[in-house]
């Protein structure tokens, strides 16, 4: 398991992959050929010959990887306390360990699963209460292994950055610069060292970019070779992993798809390709970049749902059918219920919407007040509400209007779509009724009540037509849990609806239920399903009360297919919205470019030691300048080229354009969409965009030195400037490393000195 | 413009065996050439134009005065038209041109502005409303000839143009939307006008700087200004024209025979006509707007004190108040942020779980008694209204207490989180009858003043600092949820940034002991007014959020004609009008979009692969890619942005996109029929297929209009869900409510 995991994570660094492949395929071969950029088939060719192997190792890459590992892994289990969003992801890790179902509305499950893998490897039993940032970890929490995977991913971004620049055809020097800038970026370090998802996301994004570049560079001379396939497939796999970690990964995925589409468009114009080979190329790309990612994405959910089979705290947002498929919880109650609702059935009715909370149709002996606070009158009949808790008053009996009996006949007569029924409240034996009286809180809708005959010429209107919405034919039987039903009032054609408003004191703050006259199309608030169900046996009211109080029992199980579960869970993840409250450290997207904001991750309980998400300000500023310079220069070149004036040779123009497409494009797609989002944003959302922007710095610098510094004097001056600038990057890194690593503790004056911007919120204890 | 007849004359002889051999190399469907049946000769065009125009006017003006009561949004726009006639200031989220034109039309047709337009269903009685409806219907009728001309220009094919025109003539949705006092026909008029003049200008590209070139270019600019001036949706057509212009300029730049000076001229001409001219017109219409509306009205509170002082009848106009603030004065405080509200409080408490459970303090945009506060000294509670006590002025740097006049609670802050902006502190009303605690003390400071100076009403920009925590009173600009009556949040910010959010001025000032002095308040410049009114409009627009649990129209509903809008009448006995597109046309449009994508992609791939095409096919592919592309871009630009809008959306927002979609249908089917006809080498069969297909489409459209015309021209009798209704068989979707 560990080996496999390592395989995937290390493959970014080219030669390790071959190393591992050699170990896996020809395990006993002692001498190894390790040549950077070799292809599979050539490697297989070597197996036929005497095995003579020379090793070629890129020491730069080695050194960078080691430095990356040191910077990210050093003192990883410090602080031994819950840091920032660990409090959030930790819960999920615990739930994975306990196999309890949950819904994380922030994204797909792959990221959480990876974190849980860390916990699994460290032997975590899931017993920790994740309730407070800063809480000390108990002894059973394997802090080191929980934080290991994000840290490894963060460390591997350093060699990945190096390779990306090489593949973009820039010099080793520029590549080294890019890797070092990533290495010394405080915000990336902070984010990788805890149980958070951004570093994993960035790793997969960079891996996807790198594999696509490798694939594209192989395209020219060795299409359909082994390594061509390998890098193409890896692109798809890395993309789906990125999307699986966070939906933000979609942006990079779309960018790569667009770039691949553009490249393919150029191929279409190339007359050297025959129609057949073009078709093959197209199919290969579609397979690797569309179909495989989709399959992978589904498989994440498959694993997620297989792992989590027990019912838990988030059950209630799911439909009854989904809940019934989990072990424990609703399944325990509904197991063995009769499937078909019949006349005389005793049922509880749950509203399908589940917002503002799940609730069941409910009534109790209290009546609507004669006059409301605002002076409007009511019918003064028995209240009907929607109640968010299980209660004996949630039971209703389905009655045939033509017959008196309240028990199920033998054989049971099932209720079908379009049948007209009466609903009798089990405990009070009153009939569900609605009439032309304004509802208490939604005056445009009708009041729903349980009818009390006051003899005041207000007749009972208690006939309801059952409409099954997910029916297959018009004679479908009303089924427990599975059928989504709408109740249409026969006299007024109003529809039974949950208005979502909560009643005042007289209604015990339960939710208002109304009859909606202008039912516009389908809305979940008008849809109900039977959750608990049994065939009523007692004709006498007293007996029936006893029966209602007893738990339901019988045997049939209902299993949902994986696709049905997936669709529902996916839909819930996309539509579930947290209360949009602002966080203390939330920021707006505009603050990120200039790093006007920071996030305090952790503060030592006694000393002044603290950890902040705070970037290397020199790098951030340089990255902005680089992006600006790149855009201006490109525009200038473009206009000039349009007039057939070529400032730089064609050989340099192509890498310049593709580098811009990837780096500026990557920055833009990962940053600009945040301006359209209406969710709570944090500085760490900017990190993927920042990574791309950092890659642009050495690209622009090399371009400036190669093409704009014409004389030798200028070149050496430029180099001197570079050295000075790079020292300042290092200086800032080391200045801020105490708040990056949380060690050593700083004094109050030192902390005050670190507050370079007024908007940074560095925590200073009052003396 | 190449004459169509001439084109046909050329075609005949060239369809020989040579071309057939060539065409073997074509990919898939792009097979044999054949003479596409040519459109009829020259004089047919003016006749066709006259025909569609006539039909269009007839369909829009038919039963125009019916129903004689207020329909749907007429209640807003009719009312706003009346405001112009009465010269009363109001506030609306849209720019003023559309409503000004409605007002003008009403004024010219003899409407006197006295009808209140209270709610939909109110009878007009003797008031003259037909003039305003007629004006909108006139503009709505122009859409059809515009569409005809645009398609003709892009495709050079008379049948394509006719098809597009017929679709628009016989679409019930377009008819309904053109028949009432609404902004949409006006918006669509300018929008189509802009596209038409853009297309015309493009076809003048071979003779730049000629009179007609200048005419169409500047007309594009004028129409752009018009579209922007009616609704901000006009921005999308500005984008369309902008993209087209950039493409155009890029093309010119690549033309090396053009000197840079000439290119500069081209650039300047476009900047002049497409940027400066529209901007000038746009500004001018606001100037007219503010000049016409010079009386105080319902929109005052949305604007700053300085702005209000310009309105006749406003309490700030020619104001005469005590100049300097004194203890015991009753005041209102207005936030200096654009569209900031008055400091406000009311009896309701913050709900549980949101800070301390004390009385809410908010910012409120309307004038209200709950905006009144009394200035008191922090340390003494003597009754300052006693006429015998001496007047004591408030000075810069004083520590004061603000007591809410209606509830007698003090403005208070403490270290609890504010409800929305969690980094700030909560502001509440605290204490009973003015007795609170030391958290009620605020230091009052005037920006840029020294200690000890007096504080002036209206002119002083004041900052209130909370003494205990050091935070500053401000308004965050965020709208509170339902419990806060959707008023604006007021917080105390611990970050000491200088911004208008945390600055206030005193607006009303009542103190009987002080003499009233007429103040010549700061007159805002026109630029300031313009900026301010835009801020207010944008804020108003983004404030139109859907309520929880409300069933709202979603953008994906629109192209499938999922649900319409009730214009008039609910019950069986009412005269009912229902805004719904002619389903046959709309679904044809929907299918055509898919079809177009298919055709366009295969054509583009074929061209890229270097497949040899015949001249006719080349011309056809140019029409499909270039002309169809422009129209598709227009459709996308007018449709996709709605997916990203947070505000409440309605079905009628789709109609601009629908215009583009209909034009695309004309172009696509014409091209498709030509392709199909191309398969049949015999020119007579080909012509038959082409004519037959075209006729079938037109008949289909006409017949569906015959079926659905009561949607626009009024339905009386039982609802369609009742089998006895004349519309009974036509309720093809359950979501239609007629």
UniProtKB/TrEMBL annotation, chain A:
GO cellular component assignments: endoplasmic reticulum membrane
Location of the MIR domain: 338-401, 412-469, 473-533
Catalyzed reaction equations: a di-trans,poly-cis-dolichyl beta-D-mannosyl phosphate + L-threonyl-[protein] = 3-O-(alpha-D-mannosyl)-L-threonyl-[protein] + a di-trans,poly-cis-dolichyl phosphate + H(+); a di-trans,poly-cis-dolichyl beta-D-mannosyl phosphate + L-seryl-[protein] = 3-O-(alpha-D-mannosyl)-L-seryl-[protein] + a di-trans,poly-cis-dolichyl phosphate + H(+)
Pathway it works in: Protein modification; protein glycosylation
Bilayer topology: Multi-pass membrane protein
Family annotation (CDD domains): beta-trefoil_MIR_POMT1 (cd23281)
Transmembrane feature ranges: 51-74, 110-130, 142-162, 196-216, 228-261, 282-303, 617-639, 651-669, 681-701, 713-733
EC number: 2.4.1.109
Pfam families in UniProt: MIR (PF02815), PMT (PF02366), PMT_4TMC (PF16192)
Subcellular location: Endoplasmic reticulum membrane
Chief localization: endoplasmic reticulum
Signal peptide range in chain numbering: none
Enzyme class: transferase
UniProt keywords, alphabetically: Endoplasmic reticulum, Glycosyltransferase, Membrane, Repeat, Transferase, Transmembrane, Transmembrane helix
Molecular function GO labels: dolichyl-phosphate-mannose-protein mannosyltransferase activity
InterPro entries per record: ArnT-like_N, MIR_dom_sf, MIR_motif, PMT-like, PMT_4TMC
Family of the protein in this entry: Belongs to the glycosyltransferase 39 family.
Name of the molecule in the record: Protein O-mannosyl-transferase 1
Annotated source species: Grus japonensis
UniProtKB/TrEMBL annotation, chain B:
Species: Grus japonensis
Keyword Glycosyltransferase: yes
Gene Ontology, cellular component aspect: endoplasmic reticulum membrane
Location (main, coarse): endoplasmic reticulum
MIR domain sequence ranges: 322-378, 391-447, 452-509
Alphabetized CDD domains for the sequence: beta-trefoil_MIR_POMT2
Family according to the record: Belongs to the glycosyltransferase 39 family.
Residue ranges of the TM segments: 89-110, 130-151, 158-180, 214-247, 267-288, 584-607, 627-650, 657-680, 692-709
Region (Disordered): 1-42
Catalytic reaction list: a di-trans,poly-cis-dolichyl beta-D-mannosyl phosphate + L-threonyl-[protein] = 3-O-(alpha-D-mannosyl)-L-threonyl-[protein] + a di-trans,poly-cis-dolichyl phosphate + H(+); a di-trans,poly-cis-dolichyl beta-D-mannosyl phosphate + L-seryl-[protein] = 3-O-(alpha-D-mannosyl)-L-seryl-[protein] + a di-trans,poly-cis-dolichyl phosphate + H(+)
Keywords: Endoplasmic reticulum, Glycosyltransferase, Membrane, Repeat, Transferase, Transmembrane, Transmembrane helix
Name of the protein described by the UniProt record: Protein O-mannosyl-transferase 2
Domain of life: Eukaryota
EC number, as in UniProt: 2.4.1.109
InterPro entries: ArnT-like_N (IPR003342), MIR_dom_sf (IPR036300), MIR_motif (IPR016093), PMT-like (IPR027005), PMT_4TMC (IPR032421)
Lipid bilayer topology: Multi-pass membrane protein
Ranges of compositional bias, category Gly residues: 1-15
């Amino acid at each position: 398991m560990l080996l496999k995991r390592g395989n995937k994570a290390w493959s970014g660094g080219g030669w390790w992959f071959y190393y591992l492949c050699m170990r896996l395929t020809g395990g006993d071969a002692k001498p190894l050929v390790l040549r950077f950029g070799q292809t599979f088939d050539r490697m297989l060719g070597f197996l036929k010959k005497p095995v003579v192997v020379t090793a070629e190792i890129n020491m730069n890459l080695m050194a960078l990887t080691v430095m990356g590992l040191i910077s990210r892994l050093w003192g990883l289990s410090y602080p031994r306390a819950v840091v920032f969003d660990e409090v959030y992801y930790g819960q999920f890790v615990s739930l994975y360990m306990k196999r309890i179902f949950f819904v994380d509305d922030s994204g797909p499950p792959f990221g959480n699963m990876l974190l849980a893998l860390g916990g699994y490897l460290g032997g975590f039993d899931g017993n920790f209460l994740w309730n407070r940032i800063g809480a000390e970890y108990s002894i059973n929490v394997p802090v080191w292994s929980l934080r290991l995977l994000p840290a490894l991913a963060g460390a591997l971004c350093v060699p990945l950055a190096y390779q990306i620049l090489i593949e973009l055809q820039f010099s080793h020097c520029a590549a080294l610069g890019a890797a070092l800038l990533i290495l010394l970026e405080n915000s990336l370090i902070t984010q990788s060292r805890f149980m958070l998802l951004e570093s994993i996301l960035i790793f997969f994004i960079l891996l996807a970019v790198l594999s696509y570049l490798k694939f594209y560079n192989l395209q020219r001379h060795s299409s359909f070779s082994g390594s061509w396939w390998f890098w193409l497939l890896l692109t798809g796999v890395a993309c789906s992993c990125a999307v699986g970690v966070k939906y933000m990964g979609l942006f990079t995925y779309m960018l790569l798809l667009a770039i691949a589409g553009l490249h393919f468009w150029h191929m279409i114009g190339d007359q050297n390709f025959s129609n057949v080979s073009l078709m093959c190329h197209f199919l290969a790309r579609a397979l690797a970049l569309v179909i495989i990612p989709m399959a992978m994405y589904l498989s994440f959910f498959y694993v997620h749902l297989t792992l989590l089979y027990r019912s838990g705290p988030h059950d209630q947002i799911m439909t009854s059918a989904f809940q019934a498929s989990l072990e424990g919880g609703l399944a325990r109650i509904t197991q063995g219920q009769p499937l078909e609702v019949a006349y005389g059935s005793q049922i509880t009715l749950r509203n399908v919407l589940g917002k503002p909370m799940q609730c069941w149709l409910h009534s109790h002996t209290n009546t609507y007040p004669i006059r409301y606070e605002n002076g409007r009158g009511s019918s003064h009949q028995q209240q009907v509400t929607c109640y968010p808790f299980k209660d004996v008053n949630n039971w209703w009996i389905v009655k045939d209007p033509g017959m008196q009996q309240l028990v199920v006949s033998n054989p049971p007569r099932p209720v079908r779509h379009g049948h007209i029924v009466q609903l009798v409240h089990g405990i009070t034996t009153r009939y569900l009724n609605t009439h032309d009286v304004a509802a208490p809180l939604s005056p445009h809708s009708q009041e729903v009540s349980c009818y009390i005959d006051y003899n005041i010429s207000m007749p009972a209107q208690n006939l309801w037509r059952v409409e099954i919405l997910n029916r297959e034919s018009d004679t479908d039987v009303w089924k427990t849990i599975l059928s989504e039903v709408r109740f249409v009032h026969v006299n007024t054609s109003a529809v039974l609806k949950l208005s979502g408003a909560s009643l005042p004191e007289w209604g015990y703050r339960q939710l208002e239920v109304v009859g909606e006259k202008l039912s516009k199309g389908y809305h979940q608030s008008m849809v109900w399903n039977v959750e608990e169900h049994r065939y009523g046996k007692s004709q006498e009211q007293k007996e029936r009360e006893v029966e209602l109080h007893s738990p339901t029992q019988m045997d049939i199980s209902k299993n949902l297919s994986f696709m049905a579960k997936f669709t529902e869970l996916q839909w819930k993840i996309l539509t579930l919205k947290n209360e949009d409250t602002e966080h203390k450290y939330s920021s707006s997207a505009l603050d990120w470019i200039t790093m006007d904001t920071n996030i305090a991750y952790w503060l030592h309980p006694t000393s002044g030691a603290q950890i902040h998400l705070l970037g290397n300000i020199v790098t951030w500023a340089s990255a902005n300048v680089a992006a600006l310079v790149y855009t201006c220069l490109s525009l200038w070149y473009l206009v000039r080229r349009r007039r057939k004036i070529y400032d730089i040779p064609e050989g340099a123009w192509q890498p310049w354009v593709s580098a811009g497409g990837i780096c500026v494009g990557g920055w833009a797609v990962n940053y600009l969409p945040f301006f359209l989002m209406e969710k709570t944003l944090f500085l760490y959302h900017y990190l993927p965009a920042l990574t791309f922007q950092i890659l642009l710095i050495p690209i622009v610098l090399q371009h400036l030195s190669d093409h704009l510094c014409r004389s030798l004097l200028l070149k050496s001056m430029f180099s001197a400037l570079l050295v000075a600038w790079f020292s300042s990057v290092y200086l800032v890194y080391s200045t801020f490393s105490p708040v990056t690593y949380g060690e050593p503790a700083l004094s109050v004056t030192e902390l005050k000195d670190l507050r370079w911007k007024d908007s940074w919120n560095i925590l200073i204890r009052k003396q | 413009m190449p004459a169509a007849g001439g084109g046909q004359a050329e075609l005949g002889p060239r369809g020989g065996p040579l071309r057939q051999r060539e065409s073997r190399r074509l990919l898939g469907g792009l097979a044999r050439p054949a003479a596409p049946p040519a459109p009829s000769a020259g004089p047919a065009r003016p006749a066709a134009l006259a025909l569609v125009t006539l039909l269009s006017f007839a369909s829009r003006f038919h039963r125009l005065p019916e129903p004689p009561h207020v329909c749907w949004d007429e209640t807003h726009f009719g009312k706003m038209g009346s405001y112009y006639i009465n010269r009363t200031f109001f506030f609306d989220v849209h720019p003023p041109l559309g409503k000004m034109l409605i007002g003008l039309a009403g004024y010219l047709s003899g409407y006197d502005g006295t009808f209140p337009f209270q709610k939909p269903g109110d009878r007009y009685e003797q008031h003259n409303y037909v003039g305003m409806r007629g004006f909108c219907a006139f503009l709505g009728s122009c859409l059809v000839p515009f569409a005809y001309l645009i398609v003709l220009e892009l495709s050079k094919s008379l049948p394509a143009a006719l098809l597009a025109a017929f679709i628009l003539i016989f679409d019930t949705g377009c008819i309904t939307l053109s028949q009432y006092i609404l902004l949409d026909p006006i918006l669509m008029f300018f929008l189509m006008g802009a596209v038409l003049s853009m297309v015309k200008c493009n076809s003048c590209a071979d003779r730049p700087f000629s009179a007609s070139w200048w005419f169409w270019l500047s007309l594009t600019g004028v129409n752009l200004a018009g579209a922007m001036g009616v609704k901000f949706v006009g921005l999308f057509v500005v984008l369309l024209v902008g993209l087209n212009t950039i493409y155009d300029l890029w093309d010119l730049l690549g033309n090396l025979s053009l000197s840079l000076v000439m290119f500069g001229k081209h650039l300047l001409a476009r900047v002049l006509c497409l940027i400066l001219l529209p901007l000038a017109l746009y500004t001018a219409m606001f100037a007219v707007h503010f000049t016409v509306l010079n009386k105080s009205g319902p929109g005052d509170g949305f604007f700053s004190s300085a702005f209000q002082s310009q309105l006749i009848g406003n309490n700030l106009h020619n104001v005469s108040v005590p100049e300097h603030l004194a203890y015991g004065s009753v005041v209102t405080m207005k936030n200096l942020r654009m569209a900031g509200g008055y400091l406000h409080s009311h009896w309701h408490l913050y709900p549980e779980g949101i800070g301390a459970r004390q009385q809410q303090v908010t910012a409120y945009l309307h004038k209200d008694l709950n905006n009144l506060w009394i200035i008191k000294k922090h340390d003494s509670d003597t009754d300052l209204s006693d006429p015998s006590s001496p007047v004591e002025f408030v000075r810069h740097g004083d520590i004061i207490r603000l007591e809410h006049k209606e509830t007698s609670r003090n403005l208070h802050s403490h270290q609890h989180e504010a409800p929305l902006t969690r980094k700030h502190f909560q502001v509440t009303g605290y204490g009973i009858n003015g007795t609170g605690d030391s958290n009620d003390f605020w230091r009052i400071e005037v920006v840029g003043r020294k200690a000890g100076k007096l504080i002036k009403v209206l002119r002083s920009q004041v900052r209130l600092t909370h003494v205990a925590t050091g935070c500053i009173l401000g308004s965050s600009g965020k709208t509170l949820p339902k419990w806060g009556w959707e008023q604006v949040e007021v917080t105390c910010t611990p970050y000491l940034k200088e911004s208008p959010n945390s600055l206030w001025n005193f607006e009303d000032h009542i103190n009987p002991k002080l003499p009233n002095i007429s103040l010549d308040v700061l007159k805002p410049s026109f630029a300031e007014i313009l900026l301010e009114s835009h801020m207010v409009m944008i804020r108003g627009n983004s404030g139109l959020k859907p309520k929880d649990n409300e069933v709202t129209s979603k953008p994906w509903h629109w192209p499938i004609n999922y649900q319409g809008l009730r214009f008039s009448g609910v019950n069986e006995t009412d005269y009912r009008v229902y805004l719904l597109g002619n389903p046959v046309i709309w679904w044809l449009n929907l299918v055509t979009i898919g079809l177009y994508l298919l055709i366009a992609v295969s054509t583009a791939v074929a061209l890229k692969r270097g497949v040899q095409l015949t001249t006719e096919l080349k011309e056809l592919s140019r029409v499909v890619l270039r002309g169809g592309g422009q129209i598709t871009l227009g459709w996308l630009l007018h449709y996709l942005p709605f997916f990203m809008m947070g505000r409440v959306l309605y079905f009628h927002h789709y109609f601009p996109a629908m215009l583009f979609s209909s034009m695309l249908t004309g172009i696509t089917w014409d091209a498709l029929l030509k392709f199909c006809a191309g398969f049949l080498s015999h020119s007579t069969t080909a012509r038959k297929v082409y004519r037959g297909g075209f006729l079938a489409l037109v008949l289909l459209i006409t017949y569906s209009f015959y079926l659905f015309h009561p949607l626009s021209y009024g339905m009386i009798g039982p609802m369609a869900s009742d089998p006895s209704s004349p519309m009974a068989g036509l309720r093809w979707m359950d979501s239609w409510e007629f």
